[in-house]
Amino acid sequence: AKSEGRGTYRLFEPHFERERLERRRTEVELAAALDRGELNLVFQPQVDVESERIVGFEALVRWDHPTRGRILPGAFIPVAEGSRLINRLDAYVLRSACEQAKELPGVTISVNMSPLNLRHAGMVDNIIATLRQTDFDPRRLEIEITESAILDASAEGQDALARLRGLGVRLALDDFGTGHASLVHVRRFPITKIKIDKSFILNLGVQRDAASIVEYVVRLGRSLGITLTAEGVETREQLRFLRAFGAHQAQGYLFSPPLPLQAAAALLKRQAEA
Ligand code: C2E
Ligand code: CA
Ligand code: CA
Ligand code: CA
Questions:
Q1: Which of 40, 193, 208, 213 is most buried, by the most CB atoms less than 10 A from its CB?
Q2: Average pLDDT, the chain
Q3: Distance (Å) from CA 85 to ligand 1 centroid
């Protein structure tokens, strides 16, 4: 009778209500996790397509939960974006990345920035303060923003990007091809890199359209003087396509998964000695 009762109760509890409570719980826990330092970074190499040498690392956040174990960003970034927590999270990641990148000399460090942060008035000032406090060269920092952010960038957002670029910070357009941004939009912003979304790379050699799209984006991007990076490169065949099209950089499991700082530093050191 008891289990029957519980089942009945569920029927009356709308799905969205449970989801809302779950999100709320994650939100509260995430705020505490930020305070307790449970968020950690891993670093994934970005390589030059021709030489396959590491030219940068993308910092990706992980939540090491005391009981639930390691949680991937897909499970908590959307929750953070639903509240003001995303500002704190991205600021925390930026600061940690700038501090830890001292172990990764000579290469670019890329940090993801939620589109919501673009509208946050204090964002640029916060980045400037962080760069200064961590004594990090702005020219070594790359901020990755998704193309949706570009599309709805307000005047303030555009201004923020221009200010960052003025400091020497590089700006990468993430997940290119998944939204509605075109290269026309790209030209209106001080973008220095386009990251072609992994869904297109996955289909290289599988779907003829994917190859055409990638080739087209690489050509146009190159003609605009923008660095072209492919994400999610998993096979040699995909890399061959990218070489043929003239893409500059690649990132993906073919080269390395995201690594803990010490492993990333070791990889870089081995390369310097080779
Ligand atoms: P993203 O920026 O597109 O990051 C690339 C994702 O692809 C990462 O997932 C990475 O681990 C994964 N990946 C790398 N190589 C391969 C590959 O060869 N094949 C496949 N299938 N996947 C690959 P991850 O680490 O789970 O991050 C997911 C997303 O969460 C990121 O997508 C980014 O949008 C967001 N994110 C991560 N860290 C942060 C952060 O600090 N702040 C913000 N705002 N967002 C973040
Ligand atoms: Ca990214
Ligand atoms: Ca991406
Ligand atoms: Ca993505």
A1: 193
A2: 90
A3: 19
